[in-house]
Design brief:
- By secondary structure, the protein is an alpha/beta fold.
- The protein folds into three domains: 258 residues, Beta-lactamase, CATH 3.40.710; 104 residues, 3-Layer(bba) Sandwich (D-tyrosyl-trna(Tyr) Deacylase, Chain: A); 86 residues, no CATH class.
- It is 31% helix and 25% strand.
- The protein has a five-stranded antiparallel sheet, with helices on both faces. Strands 17-8-6-3-18 form a five-stranded mixed sheet, with helices on one face. The chain has a four-stranded mixed sheet with strand order 4-5-7-16, with no helix packed on it.
- α3 packs across α7.
Length: 477
C-alpha cells in the first residue's frame, strides 16, 4: 500500500510543473502506468484501456482487445440493458389474485400469489398484502393457495456457475417469486457452558426450513460450518463444528432452494396470524386470465433498485434483471437464453458494439464462461456517457470511490470523483468505470486482470487502486 502511494506521487510530481506538451503528457502517462504494472508476475494477464471523454482520444492501452473473464463488471452491461429495455420508472409487481369472489367474510375460490421477478420483495411486503386482504373483511378462504412463478423458467442457476459456491448467499437460487432475497438469516450465540450446543435464532421463522444444530460451545478458537440442503422437500440447515465460548453473536445468511414454496409457506403463516383460515392445498400453476386482483405490491423504480444492484454488487438483482429483459424483449417466459439475446441486441443495436467475440451468459458475472475485452467495456462506457438517454440514472447507481458500495474503502476522498464497478473471483479482478483527473478531464477506463494465484487484494491495491490514484492525480498543467 505504502509502496504504490509513494510510486504514484513520484510519477505525478513532474506533471505538476509548467504546462507540458501533448507528447510529453502521453509519455508520462504511459511510463507511469507501465511502472505500476511492471512488477506484476509475467504469467498474470493484464488488460487496460483508458480513453479521454473530452477529446475522444485513447490515452493508454495494453491487451485492450484480448478477452478476459470480467466477473461482476458484467453488471455494467446488465444495468444499461435493463434501463434501456424497461425504463428507469419500471416497477415489478407481485400480486394476490383470486379466481372466485368474496361472499361476506369468505373468499370462495383459490388465492394466487404471483411473482414477476421483483428482487426486493420482502416478508414485510407480503404482510402488507395480507393486511389489504383482511381489510376486505376476509376471514376464511375456501380454496387452494396457488403459486404462479411462471414469469421465468425454473433454471435457478446460471450456465457455468460453480457448484461448490452454491452455499454462499451470493449464489442464492433465483425464481420469479423471490422473497427476502431467497435467504434465511441465522444468528448463533455460544452457550454459557462448554460442550453445550449454541443457541440458534432464525428470521423469518418458518416450517419451510429445518435447522439441525450439531455444533458445540468450546473454549478454544474454532469455526462453524453451515450447510443448506434440500431434504424431503424441505430446506435443512446443518450447523456443524464449534463456536468459541467468548465469541460475539454470529450472523449468517443462508441461501434457500424452492423460493416460491418459501414465499407461500410464509403466506400461510401470515394468514394464520391475521386470523384468516383456509381449507385447501398448496399448488403451483398459472393464474387464469379471468382472475381478479385483491392486492398488489409494487417495487421501487428500476432506477432505485439499480443502486443496490450496483453499489452492493447484488448477483440476485442483476440476474433477475437479466431474465426480465429476456421476458420483455421476447414476450415469453424469461430464460437465460432470451436474456442473453436481449442483452447482446442492446449492446449491438443501441450501443453499436461488435459482440462477435463477446460472450455474456448471465447478468451478474458469476459464470466463468463470460468473456469481454477492455476495449468493449470502454466503448460501452463512452456510449453511456455521450449518448445514453438514461446516463444520469446509470451513473448515479455506480459505487463512488472512498464513499459508497464496494468502493467505500478504496481510493481517496481527496482525489477527483471515481465511479466504477468492481469485479472479483478467485484468480480474477476487474475495475471498470469513470474517473476525473486533477483538471476535471473525464476518462473512461477498464482494468481486467486474471491468472494469478495470490490474494485478489494484492492486485486490487497494487494495480487497480494504484492506476486510479495515478489518474486522479494526473494533470495536463
Amino acid at each position: 500500500m505504502r509502496r504504490f502511494l509513494i510510486l504514484c506521487l513520484v510519477l505525478i510530481a513532474p506533471l505538476s510543473a509548467a504546462q507540458i506538451t501533448s507528447k510529453e503528457f502521453y509519455t508520462k502517462l504511459e511510463r507511469g502506468i507501465d511502472q505500476i504494472i511492471s512488477p506484476v508476475d509475467k504469467n498474470v494477464h493484464i488488460g487496460i484501456e483508458i480513453l479521454s471523454l473530452k477529446s475522444g482520444l485513447r490515452l493508454y492501452e495494453k491487451n485492450a482487445h484480448k478477452l478476459f473473464v470480467p466477473a461482476s463488471s458484467v453488471k455494467l452491461f446488465t444495468a444499461g440493458a435493463a434501463l434501456s429495455l424497461l425504463g428507469p420508472d419500471f416497477t415489478f409487481e407481485t400480486n394476490l389474485l383470486t379466481d372466485g369472489s368474496i361472499d361476506g367474510s369468505t373468499l370462495k375460490g383459490n388465492l394466487y400469489l404471483q411473482g414477476s421477478g421483483d428482487p426486493s420483495f420482502s416478508l414485510k411486503d407480503l404482510e402488507q398484502m395480507v393486511l389489504e386482504l383482511r381489510l376486505r373483511q376476509v376471514e376464511k378462504i375456501e380454496g387452494d393457495l396457488i403459486v404462479d412463478n411462471f414469469a421465468f423458467d425454473d433454471v435457478r442457476w446460471g450456465p457455468g456457475w460453480m457448484w461448490d459456491d452454491t452455499q454462499s448467499s451470493c449464489y442464492a437460487p433465483m425464481n420469479a417469486l423471490t422473497i427476502n432475497e431467497n435467504c434465511l438469516r441465522i444468528w448463533i450465540k455460544p452457550a454459557e457452558k462448554v460442550a453445550q450446543p449454541p443457541k440458534v435464532f432464525a428470521f423469518p421463522r418458518t416450517r419451510f426450513v429445518r435447522i439441525e444444530n450439531h455444533a458445540l460451545t468450546d473454549k478454544k478458537k474454532s469455526t462453524l460450518t453451515l450447510e443448506s440442503n434440500l431434504k424431503e422437500g424441505r430446506n435443512t440447515v446443518e450447523i456443524i463444528g464449534e463456536i468459541p465460548q467468548k465469541s460475539a453473536l454470529q450472523s449468517h445468511l443462508i441461501p434457500l432452494q424452492g423460493s416460491h414454496f418459501y414465499a407461500v409457506t410464509l403466506l400461510q403463516s401470515i394468514l394464520k396470524k391475521s386470523g384468516i383460515t383456509w381449507t385447501g392445498k398448496i399448488q403451483v400453476r398459472e393464474v387464469p386470465d379471468s382472475a381478479t386482483s385483491l392486492a398488489t405490491n409494487r417495487s421501487s423504480s428500476l432506477a432505485m433498485l439499480l443502486h443496490k444492484a450496483m453499489e452492493e454488487s447484488s448477483n440476485l438483482y442483476t440476474d433477475l434483471f437479466f431474465k426480465k429483459i429476456g421476458q420483455v424483449a421476447s414476450s415469453s417466459q424469461g430464460t437465460w437464453k432470451n436474456g442473453k439475446e436481449a442483452l447482446h441486441r442492446h449492446l449491438e443495436v443501441d450501443a453499436g458494439l461488435d459482440t462477435s467475440d463477446m460472450v455474456i451468459l448471465d447478468g451478474s458475472g458469476l459464470t466463468r464462461y463470460n468473456l469481454a475485452s477492455p476495449h468493449q467495456f470502454v466503448t460501452y462506457l463512452r456510449w453511456i456517457y455521450e449518448k445514453f438517454p438514461y446516463s444520469a440514472e446509470y451513473l448515479s447507481a455506480l459505487p463512488i470511490g472512498a464513499r459508497t458500495g464496494t468502493l467505500k474503502n478504496r481510493y481517496s476522498k481527496d482525489l477527483p470523483l471515481l465511479r466504477a464497478k468492481t469485479g472479483r473471483m478467485t484468480g480474477i479482478t476487474s475495475l471498470c468505470g469513470f474517473i476525473r483527473t486533477q483538471d476535471q478531464e473525464p476518462l473512461a477506463f477498464a482494468i481486467l486482470i486474471s491468472g494469478f494465484t495470490e490474494k485478489t487484494s494484492k492486485y486490487k491495491t497494487e494495480v487497480e487502486d494504484a492506476i486510479c490514484t495515478f489518474l486522479g492525480n494526473l494533470s495536463r498543467e
